């Protein structure tokens, strides 16, 4: 059922702004090339190890952030022993092999191709400081940043860790000025300039960001950005800290700011109102240069622009830039790694890697998809190392459906094994309803178990 | 830990377009009232029972769509018996009481306040036809629509079911014309006019939608919409069937169309590139009148604009309209109901109802949130009957954290019970990693069990 085809997607009507697809005369709505847009040359500041650490269920430390999934070959000796008396397969099998490391995730993100990796402030704790130093010593291609309050003491501590740059931040909304730090705009501007000058004197890259930018006074905000631009900041940051901004507000603010500063513009969008991917996209259209992401979007509350979701959005408009720059085939491994580290399930509706992202069900869709996948797909699953699944069965627990799912998960089983697995899944489904991801876990456990039995025999 | 405060959110910088919040001079970026915008007077076409049925894991029938959660009092007699020898609590306890009914979900959506409920075409199967008739007989406030191909036979069958209106659809992209139905634009226009005239002659409401609108030729599309507008169609529909559209494309197309037709404009956005909520919002800003939604966004592939996510987006700009029209406090029950019916977990990052939507962790956030929740919240959780949680503990399994979570879930337990529960959760976490939603399931199972024991004693 799972078929991989050549990439014929996205030829019509997608955003070709600065992109690489030929403009199609068949759709007059194809945007004309846009001077402002950076859709075809954006950079990613990956903040899983900073914003992601603020996710409720994230407790990153060098001993905790671990995974059996990424490039680590499992060996027999450290496989978990299976209790023969267990009636119920564990939903998540214990790690087959472990490399304990926060460093590991930094290497994964670097390997994926992100431009920057942002870390928690070394002022947060002694462990954060030590982690920061250790990651700087890895010699990654990605530049290492740390996110610090706009205080001289924090900046001095950060400079000593060996990072490539500092992301300075201060709240500028009247609410944050009243209830958080208590400074007025004059004080904010003065301390911003002082800290920026210090960081530059140390030869490091420096960004200055407001917090809660969309609830800040526009005139104050532009004055502040102009002042830091004038002293030579490398980037200014716009942050939708509470997730309130709508796409047209974002476009207008970034476009206005683009006319005020010469430096790069970084953007940071929370997802409280579901617009974090869209807002990042329109910000790039308006002239922003950098987007903050985290893996699966983890962060404060319901998080920020997800790395995978941004890739889904960008590949439609800038296919060659995105596929040429980022190792998209690693996305699923990275997401699985982080999901396991913070004990969440990847959402069923996650762009690209959600269980149903490339599953087609309606009869009319299925027919057209078989004739030409571009009819109902804007993203070619093969670009992400994924495959599509056309849903012919009426129940997920039909063995043909399970077989297709096994193939989609990249596992090898004989038909006899699939039938045995199907009967086990049906038996479990009689005990309690199974979520799709539960079923996937059962499939993986079964596969692991059979692999082990074969090795033993 | 969970505190509910008065609604002081969203006072600054949110989209006041057509909205009800006072315009704040403190933010010059506050949009001025916009003639085109329907952000403050939109209507919802709820399509869980049509688009949602196309979700890979949805198998709706009158015997399957069931729930113990919504307004149904459980009685002792139909509670599941518990196997005393079970070592592991079931993650999802079996339904405590059941009303088997597709009709039930229609009543829930009607009670929530959606304007329309869209059903699968009666031409799909005899069961679909019977369901359609049965739902029409419920006497709901919401208008009942059915979504049918633009064929005279399908339209005649649909009219007989007693629906209030028909949503006609046909593919207009070159891809669909070539690989799906094979008609050219002249044929499409002629059959559209024929079917529309028939439906109007029967006294029913009629919508005509293209499919894959954003990959259709703009001139063809506008010609077709003008033709159906001229014969008196009630609504035209714009559908981003493959989820490729970006917010500014949406705004431009809808604004252009707004100048071409006098009738209402309905929009339908898939979420493949993560923009389904944002696109619905900008479409309303550009003059669209109706938005298609489904509960948790279920639909083909990774789905469409979610009902809850749209509420999160709209309440920020149009607080009084949204809270006055929709029973937001029912959202979580409805989402839990549908999630159970289609065997998915509500995503951890779901707007409003995701486990962490109102959880604050970073020290600086926690401090400000305690002083004034509006500092880091744009949505007041109380508007949705939810509560906030400020994260003080360093591990989820601390008993104080479990206690807060129990309170957040609205369950009553003594401290002794919470401590016992905490020890059980810790013991289970030693066996396998627990996702947050797994932990919630365990908490609910424990609560149900103790309630049952208390009733028995």
TrEMBL record, chains A, B:
GO terms for molecular function: homocitrate synthase activity; metal ion binding. Residues 71-80 have a biased composition (Polar residues). Residues 42-332 form the Pyruvate carboxyltransferase domain. The keyword Metal-binding applies. InterPro entries: 2-IPM_HCS-like, AIPM/Hcit_synth_CS, Aldolase_TIM, DRE_TIM_HCS_fun_bact, Homocitrate_synth, LeuA/HCS_post-cat, PYR_CT. Its EC number is 2.3.3.14. Keywords: Amino-acid biosynthesis, Lysine biosynthesis, Magnesium, Manganese, Metal-binding, Transferase. One of its GO terms (biological process) is lysine biosynthetic process via aminoadipic acid. It comes from the Eukaryota. It catalyses: acetyl-CoA + 2-oxoglutarate + H2O = (2R)-homocitrate + CoA + H(+). Its cofactor is Mn(2+); Mg(2+). Pfam families: HCS_D2, HMGL-like. HAMAP family: Homocitr_synth_fung_arch. PANTHER family: HOMOCITRATE SYNTHASE, CYTOSOLIC ISOZYME-RELATED (PTHR10277:SF48), HOMOCITRATE SYNTHASE-RELATED (PTHR10277). Belongs to the alpha-IPM synthase/homocitrate synthase family. Homocitrate synthase LYS20/LYS21 subfamily. This is homocitrate synthase. It comes from Eutypa lata (strain UCR-EL1).
